[in-house]
Amino acid sequence: MNRFVKISLAIVIMCITSVGALSQTAERLTRAQYIETYRDIAIEQMIEKGIPASITLAQACLESADGNSTLAVEANNHFGIKCHARWKGETIAHDAESGKECFRKYGDAKESFSDHSDFLRYSDRYSFLFEIDRTDYKGWAYGLKKAGYATDPAYPAKLIKIIEENDLGRFDVLEDSVEVEVPPTPIQAAASVEIRPGSTSRLYKIAIYREVFEQNGVPYIIATNKDSYGFLAGEYNLFKGELLRFNDLDRDEPLQAGTRVYLEKKKRSSARHLDKHVVEEGETMYGLSQRYAIQLKYLYQYNNMRRGEEPAPGTVLLLRKSKKHK
């Protein structure tokens, strides 16, 4: 190979390397971009499972290097969750402090966020966190350290710093709303009001015609702190007693922000792929009937329990009629 060819080859290699480096730099997410990309997923998880969106986002920023870590890029693992014995999904071998270790691999980022929420929600050692107010991100940050989530003594301070520098606490307060001048009417109009001006998230909408979700084929909405069962009944052209029956309530009671309110009668059993539920500390029959959109009387019936009786933690509850009773 002559000198000219060697120089030319070297120039080509340098160019390819430079282009690759520029490409990697261009694709790297900033923290602001990462938060904007995943904030709605964090809010959805907060509504469904109770972990403050600020905490979820701060942990994700820290654990995934704002979505740029190898685990986040190659395995959609934004929280560095390891395989553990009960994991049956895909895995990835990744270098950790103690060498190669097994980590969970997800189909997309939303699966990772959902698994992180489940990891906290359904583990006994984190159960006390759900007694802390959703807007108390400092309490949650120190609670995670107390429960042993991380060994780094500065872990709470790091989370709090991320939350405060990026004002993530604003995502924990869904009830902050713009005043509506037009009085709400039964469901006829299609006008809506954004809780935060400029937001594009469906979860920030309250409405004269608000967003309707679905569980087990049953439509429901998420209540705000300004709602009542009487108000919602009028909005959806229902009788209040009818709405209360849909939600297995014998009498009216105050509505808390974030409460799931069904707009039609719940089903007699859960969705086909959900046959059982392992009861965790603090869970109630009513709460589970709302979670899975099952009429409370049938949930008691399937499990041979009396009305008012509550299951002990660890109990395996049937969500559908067992085959031997059919």
Report on the structure:
It is built from 11 helices and 9 strands. The protein is an alpha+beta fold and 326 residues long. The protein has 3 domains: 142 residues, Lysozyme (Orthogonal Bundle); 71 residues, no CATH class; 50 residues, LysM domain (Membrane-bound Lytic Murein Transglycosylase D, Chain A), CATH 3.10.350.10. The strands form 4 sheets. It has a 3-stranded antiparallel sheet. Strand 5 and strand 6 form a beta hairpin. 25% of the residues are buried. The N terminus is likely disordered.
Low-confidence stretches: 3-26, 175-208
Number of helices: 11
What general outline do the C-alpha atoms trace? globular
The assigned CATH architecture of the largest domain is Orthogonal Bundle
Structural class: alpha+beta
H and E string: HHHHEEHHHEEEEHHEEHHE
Proportion of residues in β-strands: 5-15%
CATH topological fold name of the largest domain: Lysozyme
Q: Please state the average pLDDT score.
A: 79
- Per DSSP E runs of 2 or more residues, the count of β-strands stands at 9
CATH top level of the largest domain is Mainly Alpha
For this structure, the quaternary state is single chain
The helix content is: 25-40%
